[in-house]
Amino acid sequence: MKPKCMVALSGGVDSAVTVLSLSAEYDVMGMTLKLHPGFDPGPAERLCASLGIPFRVMERQEAFMERVITPFVETYKAGKTPNPCIYCNRRVKLPFLLEAAEDAGCDYVATGHYARVERHNGRSLLYKARYPEKDQSYMLSVLTQDQLARLILPLGDYAKEDVRKIAAEHNLESAKAADSQDICFIPDGDYAGYIRRLTGEIFPEGNFVDPAGKILGRHSGIVDYTIGQRRGLGLPLGYHAYVVAKNAERNEVTVGTNDLLFKTRVELCHINLIPFDRLDAPMRVKAKTRYSQKESDATLHQVGEDQLLLEFDQPQRAVTPGQTAVFYDGDLVVGSGEII
Question: pTM of this prediction?
Answer without folding.
Answer: 0.94
